[in-house]
Amino acid sequence: MQTIMRLYVVALQFLTIIPLPFSVRCEERDLGRALTFFPLAGLTLGALLVGADYLLAMVLPRGVEDLLLVSILAVLTGVLHLDGLADVCDGLAARGGREKFLAVMKDSRTGAAGAVGLILALLLKYQALLHIAPDMKRQALFCFPMLGRFALVQMTTGSRRARNDGLATAFLGGAGWVQMLAATATTLFFTLLFLGVAGLWLFIASYLLTWALKAWFHRKVGGVTGDIIGFAGELNEILCLLMILAVSGKRFFNL
After folding, report:
1. Residue 13 class from Cβ within 10 Å (0-12 exposed, 13-18 middle, 19+ buried)?
2. Tens digits of per-residue pLDDT, 41-76?
3. Shortest CA distance to 166 belongs to which of 110, 79, 84?
C-alpha cells in the first residue's frame, strides 16, 4: 500500500505543480512504474476542476468561469504538455526530414505554427467546455484530464526513443504492459462510471486516435519524444471535450 501511494505521488509530482506538504523518494525505475497512476492523477486534476467549478459558478457567468477553468488546468500542469503541443506544431511546419523535425522541436523558441497551434487548442477546449450541457459538465471535467493522461501512458508503452535524451527516455525505460493494462482498466472503469455507454465510445475513439498518432510518429521520426507524448495528451483532451459536447447535444452515443 505504501508503494502504491508513493507511485501515485510520483505521478502527481511529475504531471502537476500542485504543492504537497511532503515529498517522496523517486528512483529511476519508479518513473515507468508510476505510469499506472497517470489516469488517477488526471482524475485528481478533474476533481480540482469540479471543485473550482462549484465555487466559481456561484459568482461568475459561465463564459468567464469556463475560461478560468481552462486556465486553471494549464497552470496546475505547468503548461508542460501545451509546450509539447507547440513544439510539435513547429516541427510539423518545418517540412523537413527526421533530423530537421527533432531539431526544431528541441529549440526553446516558439514559432508561428506553435503559437497558432497553442491558441487553437486552448480555444477549442474553452468553446467545447462552454457549450457542453450543464447536466454533463462536471462529468466532462472529471473525464477529459483523465483521458489526456491515459494517452500519455499509451504513447509511452511499447514505443521507441526518437532520441536518447529528454524526459521521455526515463519513462520509456520503465514502461511495461503491466502499467498499460492497469491504466487501461482504471480509465475505462471511470469513463463508464461517469458517462455510461457513451464513455465506451469515447474510450475507443481516444485509444484509436492515440494509436494512429503513435504509428505515424514512429514512421516519421522513428519513435516518440516527451513533446510528442504531450502533444498526444493535448489532442486527446480536445477530442474528449468535443465528443462529450456531441453526446450532450444529441445523445447519439447513448443509442
Report:
1. middle
2. 999 999 999 999 999 999 999 999 999 999 999 999
3. 84
Residue in the structure block whose three cell numbers are 483521458: 147
Please give the Cα distance from 46 to 42 (Å, whole number): 6
What amino acid occupies position 26? C
Q: Is the pLDDT of residue 191 over 70?
A: yes
3-state secondary structure 45-91: HHHHHHHHHHHHCCCCCHHHHHHHHHHHHHHHCCCHHHHHHHHHHHH
Question: Predicted confidence band at 1 (pLDDT cuts at 50, 70, 90)?
Answer: low
Alpha-carbon span 252 to 187, nearest angstrom = 22
Question: Among candidates 12, 108, 114, 80, which has minimal Cα distance to 237?
Answer: 80
Gap between the Cα atoms of 248 and 38, Å rounded? 27
Q: How far is 104 from 247, CA to CA, in rounded Å?
A: 38
Residue corresponding to grid cell 526530414: 97
Cα torsion through 4, 10, 14, 20, rounded to 10:
110
- Whole-structure pTM value: 0.91
Q: What angle do CA 252, 141, 213 make, to 5 degrees?
A: 70
Span 80-106, mean pLDDT? 86
